[in-house]
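lol so apparently i was supposed to do this last week
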Amino acid sequence: MTRTVFVNGEYLPEDEAKVSIFDRAFLMADGVYEVTSVLGGKLIDFAGHAKRLERSLNELDIKKPAVFDDLLEIHRELVRVNGIEDGLVYLQITRGAPGDRDFVFPDPETTEPTVVLFTQNKPGLADSPAAKTGMKIISIEDVRWGRRDIKTVQLLYPSMGKMMAKKAGADDAWMVQDGHVTEGTSNNAYIIKGNTIITRALSNDILHGITRAAVLRFAREAQMQVEERNFTIDEAKEADEAFITSASAFVMPVIEIDGVNLGDGTPGARTARLREIYLEESRKAAV
Ligand code: PLP
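anyway here it is w/ pyridoxal-5'-phosphate bound
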């Protein structure tokens, strides 16, 4: 079935949707994005994603597109016309297509941002087998730029990291800077010791995950301790449990880091409980 996508104000069949070769995101990765999950036909934490999107645009001085206030409606319409029960909505906003290549930003008075949205159908998104089996992680050096708090489309290194993991027979990579874990290639990283969840504090070094914010809130409500601080791969290997969070994976257990089993090498009970609480509460609040 052909998807209906949204490009610059129009709903179109995917094979009729076009973006200019001069688009700043195509030439310079000059764009930002969001991924919002859909469960039971409803959007999970749309408000959080919209708020972070606005911040990303502000930080890069990209003009808010005219349709910004209609984004919830557009998400809902795409979910409806594409019949998405479980899946994702991908949204990208770029600095636009000025009609030539130039390092200097185009005049926002004459170049409108490009807005693209499309859905991805993922039946059973919340029942992924990896939630039961757990993920294997390798560590790699974090060589990304210094503004990882902005959700830009510069995803080459994270994509390479995922391939390094695949090649090593693992599922994903955790990136390490100055000896400390920053985050996963497309997710935030956590370890659990006793009743305490440990994850790197927010800064320009990591993406401020929307799922991270919700999971830490639910963890505190469930009387777990939360420590937002740096940790090393060696500390992670010694942890009782580990997990990752993202909008598309929710809470996913990690069972192995650089070939070392965590605990008994099976997903931890606290991680499983956090996943359960997150899915339950997020479904309740979905719009
Ligand atoms: N960190 C990175 C580098 C990411 O790419 C993502 C999601 O794509 C996350 C963390 C998790 O963020 P969220 O929970 O908002 O999906």
